[in-house]
Amino acid sequence: xxxxxxxxxxxxxxxxxxxxxxxxxxxxxxxxxxxxxxxxxxxxxxxxxxxxxxxxxxxxxxxxxxxxxxxxxxxxxxxxxxxxxxxxxxxxxxxxxxxxxxxxxxxxxxxxxxxxxxxxxxxxxxxxxxxxxxxxxxxxxxxxxxxxxxxxxxxxxxxxxxxxxxxxxxxxxxxxxxxxxxxxxxxxxxxxxxxxxxxxxxxxxxxxxxxxxxxxxxxxxxxxxxxxxxxxxxxxxxxxxxxxxxxxxxxxxxxxxxxxxxxxxxxxxxxxxxxxxxxxxxxxxxxxxxxxxxxxxxxxxxxxxxxxxxxxxxxxxxxxxxxxxxxxxxxxxxxxxxxxxxxxxxxxxxxxxxxxxxxxxxxxxxxxxxxxxxxxxxxxxxxxxxxxxxxxxxxxxxxxxxxxxxxxxxxxxxxxxxxxxxxxxxxxxxxxxxxxxxxxxxxxxxxxxxxxxxxxxxx
Length: 459
Fold this sequence. Notes:
Helix content: under 10%
Number of strands: 42
Largest sheet: 6 strands, antiparallel
Shape: globular
Strand order of the largest sheet: 1-15-14-13-12-2
CATH topology of the domain at 124-142 and 152-317: Thrombin, subunit H
Distance between the termini: 46 Å
Structural class: mainly beta
CATH architecture of the domain at 124-142 and 152-317: Beta Barrel
Number of helices: 0
């Protein structure tokens, strides 16, 4: 159900009609953070804007720049018989800018922006969607969340009801917005103990706020000892919603579920279990089966659930990632990186991953290059034959990787670096008193630096 707001003015349309999710920034700091970040090997910084509260997301992909900021309590109202129960009032905000940095508008939401583990800001052709929280936080439970729709001039158009459950936006297309909620029902047993029954509710609303469909996905008789505090995540792939969710823990380890729904009707297409977190690459979904006491990687059709192939060598249950490139698929486990043929899963090359305490991750850099990170080490791999182009050690453990036209951006906490793709040479670095993150504006060849409550441009 939605609560509608009147539209006060005609809506100015965006150029184009694509959709995008805002880039979630992982920044933390203190109220005393006021020093400008130090940049070495680059011309310098220019302050874009400063905010009252922490930056949650920045969207610079398209016409204009949009920034979602969180909030802290702005007012405490005493309620109850003895005045001891407090109700914090929160006010997150979304600010829109022209490409030159001039502020278009700022809308106060009357609710706080959702935490950074979700993507709280999504843009579509005629507006924005913001995942927000309510003005209260249930004690011992997940934050209430709801979806707000904003027009291109910042007018709040409609919002969903708020629910005390974890929620995430799955995708937006020209017809609708799709999101999922995890619902836990407590079931008490005769011995006094209890378990949680899990239902994932997937919903679709048209851009006018009308509900299109709702699908409650249940998982049979399997019960959880307690909620895992995560929501369903997924992607919208050519008219199919592919969702992932942790299901339960067994003697063989964690089990996960991938479920596909038709985006136009909400009908469930298939459900498949996996002993590793399901991954997607194009129209393929990758799950790990457990048969004959052995894990195997299986590729299934994302639309129908039909199995395309299995890979006998990929027997590690911890499938860390799969990337689609022009030369085929690149899969990462805890032991090795594999180059795979997309059609039949045949191994084209294999590269071992050094053992260590840091879990390796893999990120697509270009159509022929991938970055492999483990701890403070960055390795660039040519996906055509699996050869290592170069290796670079940084002074910090690498937290994230992004792409520039001619370089790679690496971040970790209060440290950021730009690295030349061809040679691995360090181009420049930036350090701050608080954590920071990069946001790349590829359309205007511009780079933003998000630092807690301040947004900068790097020249």
